[in-house]
Design goal:
- The protein has about 525 residues and is α+β, with helices and mostly antiparallel strands.
- The chain folds into 2 domains: about 130 residues, no CATH class; about 325 residues, Porin, CATH 2.40.160.
- The chain is built from 4 helices and 19 strands.
- Strands 3-4-5-6-7-8-9-10-11-12-13-14-15-17-18-19 form a 16-stranded antiparallel barrel. The chain has a two-stranded antiparallel sheet with strand order 1-2.
- A hairpin with a 7-residue loop joins strand 1 and strand 2.
- It is globular.
- The two termini are about 15 Å apart.
């Protein structure tokens, strides 16, 4: 898992690898899976003897030994299993390569098309196929006792991908194993006053040293049809399921289905985990409306990649509001609740990407959600949001400089018996990568409007607003660790606030990663 990419370019697949569509690799997966499976399952010729048939096998540092030939029935079983798993693995690795390239290059995937880009797509699929072929040769040596022939392109290389060692030596394959990761996040904090607005989630709420969270992740292709991901959070006093969901791999027409416990596709920050944020805490639109832990629930999502010459994705999501961590600390502050067992929260999202040039790109998104307010049967809460992400990352030259601008805003309306409340929030985050290992980010966010219903007899609502400014400086010793210093100045106000007019917060954060953690959405 990479905390933050320190590489210059995505790699051999080319800077425009984001045009790849998983359908391009299906023919390769089938051919590679069947061909490699048959090679793996090929039995030795039986000898006219009652003794078990053996063949010679030579390994480094050993003399020739005898190993029983593989049984034909087992060979057929291996043939079927390998064919299915290889096809699923190719599809999963293609998607992972695209996501990694997006995160590194600042691009977004596009619909299938374009003759020149198809060649690049085939090149990436071929490279992934070569990796899988090498792993299957290693499996053949381990299962059947034969010495796997090393492909020419591995000779003299220093590769570690796919379990290969130095000098092109082929080691045990990870083809059948899931990707496992562990990410630990810790923080020390200082608050100028004990009374300050809550930040939610596992963000430190008082002066001291804190274990924010440890995230354990596991993911892999189940078969050619499904991919399974699971992320679990635990700390000194809690354990919770962050996400566990399956997604389809082979639906036609650009369709994809996800089902399970997952983050809702509302805005940008809600779709990512805290360890990839620019700041220790989330912006006010996220904190006030979606809670510090984000909007997540047992849910079902259907998305569609439109067959147009530019990237256009439409998503629909339905979840259980009663399972969603509430936004705010009281019943009056939360966005959604559950009045009846059959109450559902519905969400829709539209997103697109505009590549101005190889260096400049922009992503736009619009989201809307509606569900029960939890204030009595028939009361509803509606949330509308928009987001913009602008990136400048030069693809030529020796500079590591890059610039990102993220803007998120949301407007909320909530029904109460005899009253209707409205509030809004906006966050603006410019971020700069100044050197290979250094990144600096600024954030300005504001929230205004009615927070609680106040006097239920008169219907008078109590407003609460806040303006904040934050600075974050992050150092990446490697791709697997980060150290961050953040300072925040806040100005809460309104009838619902009884604390000090100004407040300051200082955070020192450290995060460390082990294992292979999949890329988050672009």
């Amino acid at each position: 898992m990479r905390m933050h990419s320190t590489t210059r370019d995505p790699g051999r697949a080319g800077k425009r690898v984001f045009h790849l569509h998983s359908a391009h690799a299906s023919w390769l997966a089938v051919a590679l899976g069947l061909g490699a499976g048959r090679a793996l399952a090929q039995p030795a010729v039986a000898a006219p003897s009652a003794e078990p048939v053996t063949e010679a096998r030579t390994e480094p540092g050993t003399a020739g030994t005898a190993t029983p030939a593989i049984d034909p029935a087992l060979a057929a079983a291996i043939d079927a299993v390998v064919a299915a798993r290889v096809e699923a693995e190719v599809s999963a690795r293609v998607e992972a390569a695209v996501a990694a390239a997006l995160a590194s290059s600042g691009a977004a995937p596009q619909a299938v098309g374009g003759g020149g880009e198809a060649a690049r797509d085939d090149e990436l699929a071929a490279l992934i196929g070569e990796d899988l072929a090498a792993e299957l040769r290693a499996d053949e040596a381990r299962v059947t006792g034969r010495v796997a022939a090393e492909p020419a392109y591995l000779s003299g290389t220093d590769a570690t991908v796919g379990g290969r060692g130095r000098g092109g030596e082929v080691g045990p394959s990870n083809l059948m194993n899931p990707a496992i990761s562990l990410i630990g996040t810790f923080a020390a904090s200082y608050f100028t006053d004990d009374a300050h607005p809550p930040r939610g989630g596992h963000v430190p709420a008082s002066t001291g040293i804190h274990v924010m969270e440890a995230e354990f992740g596991v993911e892999a292709a189940v078969d050619p049809y499904f991919y399974l991901r699971g992320f679990f959070l635990f700390g000194l006093t809690f354990f919770e399921t962050e996400e566990v969901y399956a997604e389809t791999l082979r639906l036609p027409g650009g369709l994809k289905v996800r089902a399970g416990q997952m983050l809702a596709p509302f805005g940008r920050s809600n779709q990512t985990h805290p360890h990839v944020w620019e700041f220790v805490d989330a912006g006010l639109p996220h904190q006030r409306f979606l809670s510090g832990e984000g909007l997540r629930a047992p849910s079902l999502e259907l998305s569609w990649l439109a067959p147009v010459p530019f990237f256009l994705k439409v998503s629909g999501w339905a979840g259980m509001p009663g399972e969603t961590p509430p936004a705010g600390s009281t019943a009056d502050e939360k966005t959604w609740g559950k009045d009846r067992d059959y109450d559902f929260l519905y969400l829709g999202r539209l997103e697109t990407h505009i590549p101005f040039s190889d260096a400049w790109s922009m992503a736009l998104g619009a989201s809307a959600a509606t569900g029960p307010a939890g204030q009595g049967a028939g009361t509803r809460s509606d949330l509308f949001g928009g987001d913009l992400f602008l990136r400048y990352k030069p693809v030529e030259g020796a500079s590591y400089f890059e610039f990102d601008l993220t803007v998120e805003g949301a407007f909320r309306q909530r029904q109460f018996p005899g009253n209707r409340l409205a509030d809004w929030a906006v966050a603006v985050e410019p971020a700069f990568r100044l050197a290979k290992q250094w990144r600096i980010a600024l954030r300005g966010d504001v929230a205004e409007g009615d927070l609680t219903r106040g006097d239920t007899m008169t219907g008078h609502a109590r407003d609460f607003g806040e303006e904040r400014g934050a600075l974050s400086i992050t150092y990446f010793p490697t791709e697997f660790s980060l150290l961050r210093l953040q300072g925040t100045l806040s100005h809460p106000h309104g009838e619902a606030w009884t604390g000090p007019e100004w407040g300051g917060e200082i955070f020192l954060q450290a995060s460390y990663a082990l294992g292979a953690h999949g890329a988050h959405p672009f």
